[in-house]
Design a protein that fits this description.
487 residues; alpha/beta; TIM Barrel; eight-stranded parallel beta barrel; three-stranded mixed β-sheet; 16 helices; disordered C terminus; binds beta-D-fucopyranose
Length: 487
């Protein structure tokens, strides 16, 4: 497949271009300045949980190299940096007074960003729950939602009105279902009942956290939540296939969209999951607490999947296609292989899915602006002698997805910005360092940063406000000036 693309569409002035990371994936310094252990420290140090036995102990050492990293962001022309605050740096055990040293790191980061004109986009929770809170039940426990609101208040006080956008949670789907369904993420407790309790307590944490931020900063404080809404394409228009799609949509998407944006759980979810829980954890008043107005919906998008009604019962056909353990109560849903191409994650590349999702969200919530808070791709980068990476597949992926966002905007969708994943190669959760999403290469061992060709391309996109062509190799001049930012 050719990766060449002609110069493409322009974006309106004010559209925010940026890049994202998350604390545990980049910071390292896990035992410094009073940081307590998180569930990802525990999980990554448990043999067999993370590829290669990798951990975030050092990661990209962003904690110590943050000044150079911000300089590199400025040199790339980023207009926004989406980072997450590590809860265990602020409260080592997830409760009690804030740790001033932990707050100071983010306080400095915000100032450094503002000094170079980069808007800070803060995620309060990107999966690194303090281990002490896991020990008392984690997200399966209601108490964790209250603790989250306290933590959010501490961070809001410290960072104040310097933050461009506050995101309560990143992808609660992953915390609930990868953490407690499949168990492939921390805390790694496969139990469908706990997964659903976690769904609700994460929703509650979002609502209480958003209220806590506004309690400190006023009602106009810009608040969002980031979902990784799953795009399930029905294999046919047959009513049985459409019903199967609805079942998986309910469990993957509607349990988050419903409470946060509409004030109710989808009615079907209770019957669909009655074998696992009676939902007694939903208390009077919770849905009001959860249903707080948000300013922007954050959307992380990578790929799509294809589903239909299961043709053969799972139990009698051991070779039947796998039912993901994240798809609770969806035993009658069958997954079909999507056509390629695929990234190194095995995820299919389907930019049209992003346009479709944006159009669907806009039709449903016409007044809610959207921000793409993650989108990007892992490929097996080939590294040249100077650390250079001519990552045309990644650049073409970014081009096509940015273009897909533009197509949705042309059709009337209010998209405010695009924050690609990721600013730099980092700890990719259960995949460790074996999967690289960065537009900046981080050399294993030395941790030296080198802008990839995709980074040089993105810099040009931001500078010009329009899609640059893909195909011509970056000029050495561009590489040199970008490398100079690290000196
Ligand atoms: C998302 C996560 C992010 C990163 C990308 C590849 O699910 O939010 O931290 O791992 O996937």
């Amino acid at each position: 497949m050719s990766h060449a693309r002609p110069a493409g569409r322009a974006f309106p002035p004010g559209f925010l271009w940026g890049a994202a990371t998350a604390a545990y994936q980049v910071e390292g310094a896990v035992a410094e300045d009073g940081r307590g252990p998180s569930i990802w420290d525990t999980f990554s140090h448990t043999p067999g949980k993370v590829a290669g036995g990798d951990t975030g102990d050092i990661a990209c050492d962003h904690y110590h190299r943050v000044e150079q990293d911000v300089a590199l962001m400025a040199d790339l022309g980023l207009q926004a940096y989406r980072f997450s605050v590590a809860w265990p740096r602020i409260q080592a055990t997830g409760a009690g007074p804030a740790n001033p040293l932990g707050l100071a790191f983010y306080d400095r980061l915000v100032d450094q960003l503002l000094d170079v004109g980069i808007a800070p986009v803060v995620t309060l929770y990107h999966w690194d729950l303090p281990q002490a809170l896991q020990d008392t039940g984690g997200w399966a426990s209601r108490e964790t939602a209250y603790r989250f609101a306290d933590y959010a208040e501490h961070v809001a006080r410290a960072l104040g009105d310097r933050v461009h956008l506050w995101t309560t949670l990143n992808e609660p789907w992953c915390s609930a279902y990868l953490g407690h369904g499949s168990g492939e993420h921390a805390p790694g407790i496969p139990d469908p009942g706990l997964a659903l309790a976690s769904v609700h307590h994460l929703n509650l944490a979002h609502g209480l956290g958003a209220r806590a931020v506004r309690g400190v900063l006023g009602e106009s404080a810009p608040v969002s939540v980031t979902f990784n809404l799953q795009v399930h394409q029905a294999v046919s228009d047959d009513p049985a296939d459409l019903a199967a799609k609805r079942r998986i949509d309910v469990i993957a998407n509607e349990v988050f969209l419903g409470p946060t944006l509409e004030g109710a759980y989808p009615a079907e979810v209770f019957a669909q999951t009655s074998r696992f829980t009676d939902w007694a954890f939903v208390r009077d008043g919770d849905l009001d607490d959860i249903h707080v107005p948000i300013d922007v919906l954050g959307l992380n998008y990578y790929n799509t999947s294809r589903v239909g009604a299961r043709r053969a019962p799972v139990a009698v056909d051991p070779d039947a296609p796998f039912v993901p353990t994240t798809a609770i109560g969806c035993e009658d849903v069958e997954w079909f292989e999507q056509p390629g191409p695929r990234t190194q994650m095995g995820w299919n590349v389907d930019p049209q899915g992003l346009t479709d999702l944006l159009l669907e969200l806009h039709a449903r919530y016409p007044d809610l602006p959207i921000m793409i808070t993650e989108n990007g791709a892992a490929f097996d980068d080939e590294v040249g002698p100077e650390g250079e990476v001519a990552d045309r597949e990644r650049t073409a992926y970014l081009y096509d997805h940015v273009d897909a966002v533009g197509a949705a905007m042309d059709a009337g969708v209010d998209v405010r910005g695009y924050l690609l994943w990721s600013f730099m190669d980092n700890f990719e959760w259960a995949w460790g360092y074996s999967r690289r999403f960065g537009i900046v290469r981080v050399e294993p061992g030395t941790l030296r940063r080198t802008v990839k060709d995709s980074g040089a391309w993105y810099r040009e996109l931001i500078r010009a406000g329009r899609l640059p062509a893909v195909g011509a190799a970056s000029t050495p001049a561009v590489r040199t000036s970008l490398d100079a930012a690290q000196a």
